[in-house]
UniProtKB/TrEMBL annotation:
<feature type="compositionally biased region" description="Low complexity">
    <location>
        <begin position="401"/>
        <end position="425"/>
    </location>
</feature>
<feature type="region of interest" description="Disordered">
    <location>
        <begin position="374"/>
        <end position="425"/>
    </location>
</feature>
<feature type="signal peptide">
    <location>
        <begin position="1"/>
        <end position="22"/>
    </location>
</feature>
<dbReference type="InterPro" id="IPR017946">
    <property type="entry name" value="PLC-like_Pdiesterase_TIM-brl"/>
</dbReference>
<keyword id="KW-0732">Signal</keyword>
<dbReference type="InterPro" id="IPR051057">
    <property type="entry name" value="PI-PLC_domain"/>
</dbReference>
<protein>
    <recommendedName>
        <fullName>PI-PLC X domain-containing protein</fullName>
    </recommendedName>
</protein>
<dbReference type="Pfam" id="PF26178">
    <property type="entry name" value="PI-PLC_cat"/>
</dbReference>
<dbReference type="GO" id="GO:0006629">
    <property type="term" value="P:lipid metabolic process"/>
</dbReference>
<dbReference type="GO" id="GO:0008081">
    <property type="term" value="F:phosphoric diester hydrolase activity"/>
</dbReference>
<feature type="compositionally biased region" description="Low complexity">
    <location>
        <begin position="374"/>
        <end position="394"/>
    </location>
</feature>
């Protein structure tokens, strides 16, 4: 029976990956699909990249993995904002290979692999930034003992804010959410937003819905120019900075390794309980305390989807609006983009993925593509060899995606490997 259930769960994951591939990539003849080997002569389809899953030497050949979710707006913008899910990058500014603008080598670990501009172009719509007053300016920084130093400072906040401004200017139908872990003085953030020309886009806190009410429709937010949601970890910044206190509007899971316990979806200390209905937005964190590309490679697909189902149960039967990960492009298949598709399918139409939603149909009406790529077979879409993954990472091999039917969902079957309790905030 366990073997049958495992096969069924694996089959669903393969089907989800294949459907999303058919729906979003539509590659030209000769292009490789998700999970297939790739090279300069056999490139991946759109919305994917060609790379090894793990960055470690000898971890296997390069394969195609997804970098981009299906556009959550593909079936329209007439739903409340809290009926959409958005791929979110944790510490969006902490990018591999980035030299500090201070001139010092950076010793704090990175969390992402490409620029904020590239993240946005790949469909990321939630950004997590840590702000500090440093060198008479606002910086994006990891802290060491609660302070920003030359060797932990990644870049000036103004650089990333200008990237956000350029994207919003060039994409008039897009909405971005910024979560600020704020260690700056009152007024510092508003000054930086104004200098970047972003103030005109900020959703006014006074117009945000209270007591768990629905948000305006995405269409209305765009029409009113409220295309940048800025949430801060500091209370009382509505007056000084014109931004909202995040936990008045969002329930959020524990972050880091403490938030990855098998079958658990506890809230972080500052947030209300996950089942609180006084907040209408749900944020699920899924990353380790010590950032690991190898861990993301193994866990950013089916274990992430399993965690979303666990958090659905814990969050008063609500799917997440924001899915926050490290190294969002790393996975053994569909990755965080596929998880975002699953959440959007459940939020928008009640289907296993947004690829199954049927336009202009009642909630719960699902359809499947008339045809799938021939490479949707298990052999083409299977994950990297589990033993190779185990040898390149302390994390266990991937667990299998649960079915999304409430009557047949399986919890995440293995917990992430324990990690050091030390942390960069």
């Amino acid at each position: 029976m366990m073997a049958v259930d495992a096969a069924r769960r694996r089959g669903l994951l393969l089907l989800l990956v294949a459907t999303a591939t058919a729906f979003v990539a539509r590659p030209a003849t000769g292009s490789a699909l998700v999970g297939q080997g790739c090279s300069a002569s056999s490139p991946c389809g759109s919305g994917m990249r060609c790379a090894t899953c793990s960055p470690l030497p000898g971890s296997g050949p390069a394969v195609c993995s997804r970098t981009t979710p299906i556009d959550p707006k593909i079936h329209g913008t007439g739903l409340p904002f809290n009926r959409y899910s958005w791929l979110t990058t944790h510490n969006s500014f902490a990018i591999t290979g980035t030299p500090s603008a201070t001139g010092a080598p950076i010793v704090s670990p990175p969390n992402q692999e490409d620029s904020v501009t590239n993240q946005l172009n790949n469909g990321v719509r939630g950004l997590m930034l840590d702000t500090y007053d440093f060198k008479n300016d606002l910086w994006l920084c990891h802290s060491f003992a609660g302070k920003c130093y030359d060797f932990t400072a990644y870049q000036l906040a103004s650089k990333v804010l200008k990237e956000i401004k350029a994207f919003l200017d060039s994409n008039p139908s897009e909405v971005i959410t910024v979560f600020v872990e704020d260690y700056s003085a009152p007024g510092s953030l508003s000054k930086a937003l104004a200098a970047a020309g972003l103030t005109k886009y900020v959703f006014p806190p006074a117009k945000m819905p209270g007591n768990g009410a629905d948000w305006p429709t995405l269409k209305d937010m765009v029409a009113q120019g409220h295309r940048l949601l800025v949430f801060t970890s500091k209370q009382g910044r509505e007056g000084s900075d014109g931004v909202a206190h995040v936990w008045n509007y969002v329930v959020e899971t524990k972050y880091g390794s403490d938030g990855l316990a098998m079958g658990s979806c506890a809230s972080r200390a500052e947030s209300r309980a996950m089942d609180s209905k006084a907040q209408s937005l749900v944020l699920v964190n899924f990353f380790t305390t010590n950032p690991s590309q190898s861990w993301a490679c193994v866990n950013n697909s089916s274990p992430l989807i399993a965690q979303l189902r666990t958090c659905y149960d814990a969050s008063a039967k609500r799917w997440p609006n924001f899915i926050a990960v490290d190294f969002y492009m790393r996975s053994s298949g569909g990755g965080a983009p596929l998880a975002t598709d699953v959440a959007n399918g459940r939020l928008q139409c009640g289907c296993d993925t947004i690829a199954y939603c049927k336009e202009n149909a009642p909630f719960g009406t699902c359809t499947m593509p008339s045809s799938l790529p021939s490479s949707a077979s298990a052999s083409a879409l299977s994950s990297p060899n589990p033993s190779a993954l185990r040898s390149s990472s302390s994390a266990p091999p991937p667990t299998l995606a649960p079915t999304m039917s409430p009557s047949s969902v399986s919890s995440q079957s293995s917990s992430p490997a324990p990690l050091s309790s030390s942390s960069w905030s």
